[in-house]
C-alpha cells in the first residue's frame, strides 16, 4: 500500500553529524513508548547542551544490523557544532558523512514502518543497495504529537 503522506524519495548526501542526546536501549516492542519519553526529556534539557545548531529539530539515529553492543539502541539527539561539556546522562555520537535514500513523511508514528517499506522498495528499484550496518537517520521537524509527525527518513545506501 502506497503511503499517501510521504513525498517522493530522493538521494541525499550529508556531511558528518555531531549529535548530543539520549540513547534508548530496551526491548523492541518498548521503543514506541520509550523514544517519545527520551524526546520529551531531551527537549526539557535542551538548555544544558552547548553549541546546538537548531533546537527545533531532533534527530534519531540507529543501525539496523549492529556489529557490537555499543551500536545497539536508538539515539534521540540534537545536532551540535562541536562537542563540549556533555551533560550528565547524555551521550555524543558522530554519524559519518554518508549517502541516503530519503523521503519526508508526515503522519502518525504507526505509519513510519510502511513509509520505510516504500522507501526501501524505491531505492531497490533505482538500483541502490541498503547498508544495514551503517547509521540510519531520522530528522524530526515535528515530534510532540505521535499522531502528527513530520520526519525525514534517511536510509543509508551505497
What is the structure about, briefly put?
By secondary structure, the chain is an alpha+beta fold.
Describe this structure in words.
The chain has 158 residues and is of the alpha+beta class. The protein has 2 helices and 8 strands. It starts with 9 loop residues before the first strand and ends with a strand. The model has no long low-confidence stretch (mean pLDDT 94).
Secondary structure topology:
Layout: E1 10-14, E2 17-24, H1 31-44, E3 58-63, E4 74-79, E5 91-95, E6 98-107, H2 112-125, E7 135-142, E8 149-157
Antiparallel strand pairs: 1-6, 2-4, 2-5, 3-4, 3-7, 6-8, 7-8
Globular, elongated, flat, extended or rod-shaped: what is the shape?
Answer: globular
Helices and strands: which structural class?
A: alpha+beta
Q: What is the CATH-assigned architecture? A: Alpha-Beta Barrel
- The mean pLDDT is 94
CATH-assigned homologous superfamily: Regulatory factor, effector binding domain
Count of discrete domains: 1
Total strands: the figure is 8
Number of helices: 2
Strand content: 35-45%
Low-confidence stretches: none
Q: Examine the coordinates and then state which fold CATH places here, giving the name of the CATH topology.
A: Multidrug-efflux Transporter 1 Regulator Bmrr, Chain A
Q: Helix content range of the residues, please?
A: 10-25%
CATH class: Alpha Beta
What's the helix-strand series? EEHEEEEHEE
Read across the widest sheet, the strand sequence of neighbours is 1-6-8-7-3-4-2-5
Largest sheet: 8 strands, antiparallel
Radius of gyration: 15 Å
Terminal Cα span: 26 Å
Amino acid at each position: 500500500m502506497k503511503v499517501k503522506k510521504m513525498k517522493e524519495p530522493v538521494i541525499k548526501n550529508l556531511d558528518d553529524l555531531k549529535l548530543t542526546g539520549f540513547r534508548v536501549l530496551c526491548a523492541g516492542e518498548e521503543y514506541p513508548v520509550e523514544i517519545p519519553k527520551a524526546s520529551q526529556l531531551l527537549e526539557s534539557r535542551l538548555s544544558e547542551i552547548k553549541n546546538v545548531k537548531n533546537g527545533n529539530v531532533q534527530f534519531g539515529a540507529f543501525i539496523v544490523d549492529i556489529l557490537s553492543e555499543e551500536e545497539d539502541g536508538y539515539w534521540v539527539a540534537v545536532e551540535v557544532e562541536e562537542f563540549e561539556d556533555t551533560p550528565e546522562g547524555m551521550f555524543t555520537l558522530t554519524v559519518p558523512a554518508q549517502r541516503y535514500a530519503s523521503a519526508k513523511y508526515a503522519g502518525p508514528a504507526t505509519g513510519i514502518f510502511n513509509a520505510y517499506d516504500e522507501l526501501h522498495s524505491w531505492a531497490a528499484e533505482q538500483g541502490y543497495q541498503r547498508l544495514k550496518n551503517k547509521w540510519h537517520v531520522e530528522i524530526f521537524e515535528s515530534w510532540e504529537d505521535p499522531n502528527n509527525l513530520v520526519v525525514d527518513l534517511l536510509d543509508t545506501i551505497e
